[in-house]
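Q: Sequence in, structure out?
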Amino acid sequence: MHCDVSWQRFKQFPRLMWIFLFGSFITRGSYYMVWPFLAVILYEKFALSATEVGMVLSSAAIISVFTSFVGSSLSDRIGRHKLMYLTGILYIISFSLLAEANSVEGYVVVMTLCSMATSLWRPLTSAAIGDIIADPKTRELAMQSLYFIVNVGCAVGPMLGVWLGLTGKQSSFYLTAVAFAVLLALLYWGFNHQTRQDVALAAGASSNDNLSDATSGTESDGASGSVNDMTSDGVNRGVNGLLSDTEASTKKAAVVSRKQIVAILLQDKLLQCLIFANILCMFIYAQMDSSLIQYLTRAGAPDLLTLISGMIFTNAMVIISTQFLLLKLMARFPLVKRIQIGLLLLICSQIWLAFNPLDLFWGWIGAIVVMSVAETILFPTMNVHIDRLAPDHLRGAYFGAASFYDLGFALAPLGGGIILDHFGGQWLFLTGAALSVLVIYLYSILDRLPRPDFSMFKAD
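A: Exactly. Output:
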């Protein structure tokens, strides 16, 4: 099964999907106007060391990982849209507070809230896409599109911030809060439109059932029952998490219990191996944002600021310019094969970084190009992989479990710092290459690992 990149596929996106895309662009763009410069703000205001700043960011990230798993599992029970509203409100509150924070303790608390909101939002969005788009190929294109638009926001946000004179200013966090307020208003409109559309589809199906029952002499009560069946089963794919409060309360009795969810996840050895492999993968990638910059700074690389800015810009532009081309080229390969190809490119980039001369500017840029191509193949494909593994009624729980990938990002500054202090930069990247080989092996054994018998877990 592969993704079909065509205008006809894009035209199959429901209105709510376009809202997700627009919302991701404005929120990520405003977010990256200032968040990457948070370390600078903390240093200038409180003279914190790099280690202290890293501890603040890592602790917030680790807490958010576990919050994401619990919250995303709840989304299968209380409805995706309710939890998205609550998460959006948490975003607005936390970023507004971050714009006014004036103590280290205040930053620690508010940054943790921001990280929690971010870690909740991403799996909720991915799971909601699976709810509203039934066709697997269209759904894969939707997830690829979401990843693309997020990177557009990441590239445009900092540049727009520089042009407007807002980059690095603490008050710019208000822009992110406003962007999420706009997104919540659009989501309210989109959820209502999606619900009306699904109810209309159910009504049309029930009319056909009524006509058939009338012809065969079936009583009206039987027809009414078929309407209820259509609402709870046939339309569930498109409405899961998007129903009104009344409909959602009716659905609560038809979901798998929390105890059963935990039992399923514990029995799914394939999922556990996949999570471990992707934690390692994220650990490798996160070195570009933390340890690589630390290494270049300590080693005294020439034109350091220009080099760092060039690497960030190159990363975003490679992703934006190659994603859909690579998607079309990779369409004939199975998902796991695509991931393994990306991992081979990741190994090449790590070896290049390990042996690149310190003063060879374009050598660093070239290694980032290869690493970015690998990222373009890997990251969106990981989400699609989870989507294919997840049963419909456990989509939120599976995407929540996948949020444990972020442990790799959270632990990267600490792990990379230890390697840098004790072994040096070359060993940091050679370790990344070795871990990439391990990830390739883990992916090669996935199909041999046992999965639960989902038919054994009945809805309560």
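Confidence is low (pLDDT under 50) at residues 218-254.
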